[in-house]
């Protein structure tokens, strides 16, 4: 019995010594999500009043409350997004300055201009918010009633038909070239300073066709012909209009809108910003506003958005190279 008691004491002393030598386990400390400590600037590369500016202000309405700091919208138009992007480039990479970028300013135009003072791939994806749905419209006097009639007419036209865009090296321009490539005919490009002037030229029978956002063309439906939407599926704003793919032409053309942060912004900051943005996006009022203004809702987080942007650069890059769209800066 005495021997057994001694062994028990020794075992207890050994266990106590082992516990004393080993570090005590402590509860894991969870780092709090990043929060801004001053107002957050949202740089918009377009003048006030446009669809992108409207979207920025719509996000800002709810985002400030979620972040605990006000959002300041700064409109910095110029240079197809270059002015606004350079402003962000010189801002600290601390999440307090972000840009509401688009496929026009940060995909197609950079692909056509190899002299930009920055690389768009350096900017940190935060949130993919929406996409603008495009449609193919023609002037009222063009003797066609549907897509197949338009294709026959365009292939036989001599001289070629012309098509409007809302700017050189824009998504509208690249979408017109994509249509030409897919359908196998030629058209002459006529760039305008904005989607509105291009659509007005269509309604006045001055230009034959245009790839234009549905939301811009819809108010003029009685004065032009909307032959198709360039979407993967029919669009709720114009449910009566078939897609290009439904009618035998496998073409999808849309333009993303999303938030980017300055180069070298830490991933934790991008994730925190996205979480706040997503909470705004998920509200019924925000989703209804998107639908009623011709947007498709997106909810991409930083990693998913980065993958999407890479795929978009590849998709539009093929069109830019094939069509020889180039800006000599």
The run of helices and strands is HEHEHEHEHEHEHEHEEHHEH
For the biggest sheet, the summary is:
10 strands, mixed
The overall pLDDT average reads 89
Q: Tell me the name of the CATH class of the largest domain.
A: Alpha Beta
- Helix-and-strand structural type: alpha/beta
Radius of gyration: 27 Å
Beta-strand residue fraction = 15-25%
Poorly predicted segments: 1-28
Helix content: 40-55%
Number of domain modules:
2
CATH superfamily of the largest domain: Bordetella uptake gene, domain 1
Separation, N- and C-terminal Cα atoms: 96 Å
CATH fold field value of the largest domain: D-Maltodextrin-Binding Protein, domain 2
CATH level-two architecture of the largest domain? 3-Layer(aba) Sandwich
Inertia-based shape? globular
Any descriptors?
329 residues, alpha/beta, D-Maltodextrin-Binding Protein, domain 2, 2 domains, 42% helix, disordered N terminus
């Amino acid at each position: 019995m005495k021997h057994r008691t001694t062994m028990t004491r020794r075992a207890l002393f050994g266990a106590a010594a082992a516990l004393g030598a080993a570090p005590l386990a402590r509860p894991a400390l969870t780092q709090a999500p990043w929060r801004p400590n001053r107002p957050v600037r949202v740089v918009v590369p377009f003048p006030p009043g446009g669809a992108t500016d409207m979207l920025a202000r719509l996000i800002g309405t709810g985002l400030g409350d979620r972040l605990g700091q006000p959002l300041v919208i700064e409109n910095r138009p110029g240079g197809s997004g270059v002015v606004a992007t350079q402003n962000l480039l010189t801002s600290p990479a601390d999440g307090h300055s972000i840009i509401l970028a688009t496929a026009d300013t940060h995909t197609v135009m950079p692909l056509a201009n190899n002299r930009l003072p920055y690389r768009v791939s350096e900017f940190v994806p935060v949130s993919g918010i929406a996409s603008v749905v495009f449609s193919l419209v023609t002037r009222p006097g063009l003797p066609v009633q549907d897509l197949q009639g338009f294709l026959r007419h365009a292939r036989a036209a001599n001289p070629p038909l012309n098509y409007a865009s809302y700017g050189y090296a824009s998504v509208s321009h690249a979408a017109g070239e994509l249509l030409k490539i897919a359908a196998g005919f030629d058209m002459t490009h006529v760039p305008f300073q904005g989607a509105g002037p291009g659509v007005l030229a269509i309604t006045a029978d001055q230009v034959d066709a245009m790839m234009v956002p549905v939301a811009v063309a819809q108010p003029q439906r009685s004065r032009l012909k909307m032959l198709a939407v360039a979407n993967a599926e029919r669009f709720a704003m114009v449910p009566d209009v078939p897609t290009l793919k439904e009618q035998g032409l496998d073409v999808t053309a849309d333009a993303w809108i999303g938030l980017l942060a300055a180069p070298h912004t830490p991933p934790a900051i991008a994730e925190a910003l996205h979480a706040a943005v997503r909470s705004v996006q998920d509200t019924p009022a925000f989703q209804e506003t998107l639908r009623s203004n011709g947007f498709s809702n997106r909810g991409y987080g930083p990693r998913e958005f980065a993958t999407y942007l890479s795929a978009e650069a590849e998709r539009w890059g093929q069109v830019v190279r094939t069509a020889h769209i180039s800006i000599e800066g």
